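Ticket 4471: requesting a sanity check on a complex prediction with 3,4-dihydroxyphenylalanine. Repro inputs:
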Amino acid sequence: MDKSLEEILQEAADKFALAADSHALYEAKTAFLGKMGRLGALYKKLRELPEAERPAFGAQINELRRAIEERVVAIEEKLHAREMSARLEKEQVDVTMPGRRRRQGTLHPVTRVKNLLIDVFAGMGFEVFEGPEIETDYYNFTALNTPADHPARDMQDTFYLADGLLLRTQTSAGQIRMMEKKQPPIKMLSPGRVFRSDDDATHSPMFHQMEGLVVDKNITLCDLQGMLDEFARVVFGKNSKTRLRPSYFPFTEPSVEVDVSCHACGGKGCSLCKGTGWIEVLGAGMVNRRVLENCNIDPDVYSGFAFGMGIERIAMLKYGINNIKLLTENDVRFLSQFKD
Ligand code: DAH
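Returned structure tokens:
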């Protein structure tokens, strides 16, 4: 190779040796091999030579190019290997490190009981109907045989809104909406939030109820108790029994209060059932003729029963929860106890 070309090769080798990383090497490489680099200038010179001299000089440049390329490749390999091991070092993954555990949520006890109740009654052919939480006075009271001056209105402290609207105090309002829509046979289950101005260890201004309504020919109180027995067995255990006590609700006649045998003591009497062996769980009764009439259902042809229970109350009894506030505080230590 011509002396001056050998000098270029040496110069290139020195530059490459100084390259600290592959980026610097690339820059150095283009300074020699690139179009605008040293070789570019030699090719330009080649074109300017007399024709006879060109092949020899051309061969020389090509040799120089090959020699430079060889050196680049050698250094390139070294740099790549070094960079790769530095990167592997830096991005090392400790496969023995314990994984970050993702905590799994659990269903809220109120949701659990609601789902359980829906399961029980859907199994008996009930369809779920959810009415509105903001109701008219008519659906929440009047149509349920509780006109404005009726003393039974005092049983429930109502949040009244403007224009004859209110926050429903009971899911019973859904009974009317259902019966207005549909003639018997009706088998409706209506879960939902209800609101009352009431606040202590067992009452909360917002709570959930589950309403049931059956209307058909020849429906009797025995049908009610048969279905509630099944409900009690599923929710409180297979040896549970129910008992009906006379009570009063404006929308049922006769009305009953339903007790379930105490699941904590099996009926012998304990602190939960206050020594009686029975726990009151819901209100029920035969749908009042007037209510059927209000919905254009003929009370001489059809009869029905209805029941309504507080879902929080059932959850508190079932799981032994002593303060309703625990159900709305959302303390994970409390909620995480409810697992399958
Ligand atoms: N609505 C009643 C309450 O909130 C519960 C109730 C009682 C519902 C008797 C009914 C029923 O459907 O027949 O206290």
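Notes from triage: The two ends are 85 Å apart (CA to CA). Leaving this open until the requester confirms.
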